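Researcher: I'm comparing several assemblies side by side, and this is the next one on my list. It has 1030 residues spread over three chains. Same procedure as the others: predict the full complex and return the structure.
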Amino acid sequence: MNDIKITPEIVKEHGLTEAEYDRIVSAMGREPNYTELGIYSVMWSEHCSYKSSRFHLKKLPTEAPWVICGPGENAGVIDIGDGQAVIFKMESHNHPSYIEPYQGAATGVGGILRDVFTMGARPVANMNALRFGEPSHPKTKHLLAGVVEGIGGYGNCVGVPTVGGETNFDPSYNGNILVNAMTVGLADKDKIFYSAAAGVGNPVVYVGSKTGRDGIHGATMASAEFTEDSEEKRPTVQVGDPFTEKLLIEACLELMATDAIIAIQDMGAAGLTSSSVEMASKGGVGFELNLDKVPQREANMTPYEMCLSESQERMLMVLKPGREEMAQAIFEKWELDFAVIGEITDTGKLTLTFGGDIVGDMPIASLVEDAPEYERPYTPTPTRPTADVPAVNDLNKAVMDMVGGPHLCSRRWIWEQYDHMVMGDTIGRPGGDAAVVRVHGTDKALAISTDVSPRYCFANPVEGGRQAVAETWRNITAVGGMPLAITNCLNFGNPERKDIMGQFVGCLEGMGEACRALDYPIVSGNVSLYNETNGSGILPTPAIGGVGILKNADARATINFKAEGDTILLIGETKDELGASLYQKQLLGEDSGMPPHVDLTIERRNGDFVRALIENGQVSTCHDLSDGGLIAGLADMAIAGSMGASVTLNDDQPLHVSLFSETQARYLISADDATAEDIRREAKDAGIPVTILGKTGGKCLNVNDGTIDIAMSDLTSAHRDWMPNFMKNAS
Amino acid sequence: MKARIHVTLKNGVLDPQGKAIEHALSNMGFGGVDEARQGKFIELELSETDKDKAHENVDAMCRKLLANTVIENYSIELE
Amino acid sequence: MKSAVIVFPGSNCDRDMAVALTKITGNKPLMVWHQETDFDTVDFIALPGGFSYGDYLRCGAMSAKSNIMKEVIRRAEDGVPIFGVCNGFQVLTETGLLPGALMRNANLSFVCKDVKMTVANNDTMFTADYAEDEEILIPVAHHDGNYFADENTLDTLEGEGQVAFRYNEDINGAQRAIAGITNKRGNILGMMPHPERMIEPALGGSDGRKLFTSVMNRLS
């Protein structure tokens, strides 16, 4: 295959520009052969090199005293005290999931699990952030069914609970769904494993599944815009084997308990190539690999195929010399392949041999550091004029349509297909503000949330970026957690378009501001660009995955009303902020105006106040307000508590504003009368806006003496049934 | 020698996957499918050259592992 | 009470079972790898949930043929209490220690949720601490929990009091809403729901505890 002459067509097929090809030739001092071209193409793809995004990513805050390892490794690591660390990351698997939803989503989960256990963590929770096209689009049901089944199929089998996530529908995702998967793991702080290779002569070891022809060019596919015929690319989608992954987790953790491993890295996108290049690059060494030794599933595989295969459930390690036999015994016990395929050199090159010949010889530095970096031109998103958002005639109907509609209805149909309880530590199940998972064997718990409001990001990327970060912070706060750090999946359209690049830059600016103001750094992440079909891009979707800690897992809050007759309080102020709201979009079919402003000082002040109430045991019922505003939050709490509520809203604004405004930094809480009065006083003393809205109880959701009056039985069934009804007869 | 084994659900055992296929085909407008039953197909590459012995072996494999005779039937083809 | 948890490749509720046994009995169970052929004498053997061998071929089929199951079968014949949950139940039917088979859920989807069920027979060593017809809340998490047996077998199971638990609603299409059954002798229980996941209020309830205390009380 290396005899193939490199033509401009071949270069183009590999997703490289002419200028990029010239750069390769000058880096190598000669023309690359076919295998080498393939390797450059994946290493320099958007997916591996972050060539369009790196310049801007550097501006994000990544440090805090509790950050052990920020971006650049397989996953981020933070300190949670007592010698323990949390390791987590979120990653996209958008394009493969659109082409083959089950396998695309399943391998997305598998890949992110490997990123986390590679670093020495036992995965303890999976989360996700999913975006589909509008419900009426002919593919939506099929894609949703397949993605959910794939996430469950993989996560359930490996035995890591899928504890929550978010699911949105919007026409902009009709041809480009988003499947972002997040894994959170726990490790001992002094037992964290990194990917930098070291020690000339040390063995390079391949473990896990055999290599087949799966997913060749997955990394370049993930960096290309879709066209109508993309579905023909089906054979490149890899197939996941969660059973092997489970064995791989156990075998790796068993080996990690010894001192045999110097460096370890999973083989993700671009497989053997990217893992060996990254390990060598970080360690400043060279790798010599004998491809004849790579365990192969199919006959007659070429070096090109072996280097670019994206077969799943594989890892690459550098071991201390002399530990091979002991390591091999562990992998054989778990019935996994184990092969020494090469060694570390001091050449600074990736040298590949096959059948006695050298089939590739490339300077590592040129594959990584010399990768192109583009400061792509951009136009900032124009500021929108304020919108006047009118009232609808029938408020009862409006509430029913929203709570019982695609955007706010219960996601139970989804999460009941995920084993969210395995491992026995899920104490805050899906359906709340943040999932809560105990740190096994301790009084501590992790709070985890994934969020972004793409509507806001589209309307105003800076506000949207701020809001995405703030919302995870708020969700973690609402269960009583102290937010610590985030990971992200930056899903955008084609960065070669100035307006899209403007969205990207704007969102990052807002995210950075929020991270700094909330002491909430970014420790890992992933960028997915070119989410476009025929020139039509997705809403900018920087999905954020936040992690926080509860020092005492018993002091936490859930959203369900606990007792009839409790007082309901609103913390925070409601402003006239219906621009880019769900109310406007769903009920009026419009999208105009500015999204709600995120005042990070107020955000922090209100959140710290609410968290303290939960930590000191005054409050165990709390819900943050977001899409759909106050009435949506109230409905959630009433439905979850199987009881009604009666409230009075008299904040001098039109009722539809009080009900549906999406002003940020707000929480609803409920407590017995005496505690509620204490809270009201404490809030006043602290200068925090607080309003007593009414009481829990009864069989109806009642606002302003019957202006809204909905039977809880109707509201509950509308909320519960939308999705199961929608998904009937999906295939 | 190659052994081809078909494992199918016994008559009378509910086959939810078959039902789903039947349903999907009819939704897609394919008429005239009265019933769909889903099974498994397993192919084995055998070193045995004697057909009778091979059959005996494969039959034991089916009874002991490849099929669950509480709910499944199997058939063996050798070539 | 000394217990053992059998671990197959792909088991994933082995730790949960061990945690529950440790919390309730006060003793850490022995974890026994599937390739073993023998292990210390114990009072109680648990086959945990999970996806042994990835549920490939049929759920529980490959584990049922493992080395260790030969020994488990021998001990079952000696009267040692054997308790299979979820995948463990599937292994027990695949070995023939319990009648019937567990098929794909009728709606074809994996289901994970708390379900209300009834103790159909509280006169067994696994259920004695429950009241007669007690309604309990225990989670399920399975893709293949649809219990099937022929009519005669079902009649026998019911006639002999071998149906231990019944779902209060249709969860997976199981015949006669069967959630768990014992063998005729009464020393083997297989059930799809996970009592080891309901042993403390923080996890959503404690209705699973009595299953373990029943066995403990019987053995002491």
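Model: For your comparison table: Chain B has one domain: 2-78.
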